[in-house]
Amino acid sequence: MSYDLWYWDGIPGRGEFVRLALEAAGIPYRDRARENDGKNHDGDSASLVEDLQQPRAHPPFAPPYLVADGMTIGQAANILLYLGEKHGLAPADTEGRLWINQVQLTLADLVTEVHDVYHPIAAGLYYEDQKDEASRRAADFRANRLPKFLGYFEKLVHADSGWLTADGWTYADLSLYYVLDGLLYAFPRRMLRIAHAYPRLMALHQRVERLPSLQDYFNSPRRLPWGNGIFRHYDELDPLED
Length: 242
What we know:
The protein is α+β, with helices and mostly antiparallel strands.
C-alpha cells in the first residue's frame, strides 16, 4: 500500500513532519504535489490547488493532508497520530500514544510562535511590511519563549535511551529533530549561545541525523532545503548580541 501525501512544493514546511516519519519507517508514499509535471508556479503546485477543490466528506482546511485507506487526514499531528498507531511509530499503549501526540502538539505550538515572529501583525502581510513589530517579537522569542520551550523538551529526553521514550525513537523524536534543525537555521547565533544548556536535545538532533533509515532521504533531492517557509533566517532578527 502507498499513501498520497499532499503539501506545497518548494518548501519543506509542515509537510516535512510527515515525510520524515514516512521515510524513516520505509513506508511507501507519493509526494503528489511534486509529481505535477512542471505545473509549479512560484512553489505553489497547480495539482495541489486542484486537489484541494475536490469534494470530500471530510475536507482538509489546508495541507499537509494524507490520503489513506479511503480517508483524507489533515493536520500534521493528526496524520502522525494515525501513522504512529498503524505503523508502530509510537508506543503501543493508549497512554503512550497520547503522550507522544501531546509532545507533537506542543511542537506545533512552538512552530506557530516561530511563524508569528515573521508575521506578528497579520499572516497576509509580507515580513517587510511588519519589520519593526517582527524585531520586537523576535527579541521576546529569543529571550523568553525559545528557552522556555527548549527547557521543557530537554526534560523529556530519556537519560538512557536518548529518545522521548525508553524504547527507541517515535515520530515525535523526528519532529523534534526537524524543529531543532529549523531553529538552528533561523536563529543560528542565538542557538549557538544557548545550545550548551540543552545537551540531550542537541544529542537527539545528531542522533536523528545519523539514523540509517534516513540517510538515503537526507542525501536525495527529495529533501527540500530551508527557505521561505516556516523557518526563515533574517540577520536583523538574530543579532550577534541580545
